[in-house]
User: Fold this.
Amino acid sequence: MIKINQQGSVIVVTLWTIILMTILITVIAGQIRLSSKAAFFHKEELTDWANVVSAINQAEMELMLERMPRPPETIDDLNDINKNPLFRFNGQQLELSYPPSEGVTVRIYDHAGKINIREIGRPRMRALLEKKLGEEADDQIDELIASWGDWVDLNNNAGIDGAEAEYYEALDNPYIPRNGKLETVEEILHIKGFEEVFSDVELASAFTLYTDDELVNLNLATVEAMQLLPGLDDELIGEILAFRQNNEFRGNGDVAQIVPAENMAELRPWLNSRRTSNFYTIVAYRKLVSEEYPFDDDELIEVDVTLSAFSEIVEITSFTEKPKILKINPYQNIPARPVVRIEEEFLE
Assistant:
């Protein structure tokens, strides 16, 4: 009887050992499988990152190549003779001379298509605020202009309805006003009252600090900049985008064919349709998903959904010198790109 009980105990112990070993092996196998997956995805992320950084370098090369003299035999179409190749740097998806890795998207934005928020004067700032708030908001606009003036002037004396150090240092999260020109486009949100007005604007797409004046080239203009310009609405912006896919604005006369006279009177002081700059934002990313959403009722926007987008702002001075890097942002937001209907008249 004792021997039977001992044999039974041995069997039970053996069975429990087998169960425990099975559980242990299962846990170890799960950990190995998890580690393998983590290593795989980590390698994939590193590969994607390397491809994106490589695409940035290829885009820099593209900007340098465009400054090289072009021999006549490189012109593929007689219609291209009168087209400025620099106008393709307007944020559209580009095909580069040295193509990036498959699946990597590159966009280049010439800052001549943005509003220079650093050099803008009070009359033009008032015009932008009136476009955002409406002319009936005169009192609010007066206060905003006063606060703007106090921020960019060189003294610490608050004007009427303005704000200087005393106001900003009394905030829950206090800070000191610039008392000088803006150093980043995001800085505008720190000026009293401006966060409420511009919090819905993709600032890096609408504004720049690097060009010589506030004039904008509609051949290069970003959607975000055009949405702020007096005289333009979403419908007119769509027509401008459609026109420039196969044409270019050579002057205000071309713009006037699209923009009505009343709107043109507001828009004209902001335009220089031949102007380019030496400053560019290069954006490169691996596109994961492309979706379409409504834009202004009947239009659509195409949204590139990404985990991250790498961007840099560069200055190009010559095709013999490497670009000067002014700013790097590994987490750049990708603005929505309107998909416009191309009317037959724009294809002629």
Remarks:
- Strands lie at 90-93, 104-110, 115-116, 207-208, 279-286, 289-295, 299-305, 310-315, 324-329, 337-339.
- Residues 338-348 have pLDDT under 50 and may be disordered.
- Residues 2-65 form the longest helix (64 residues).
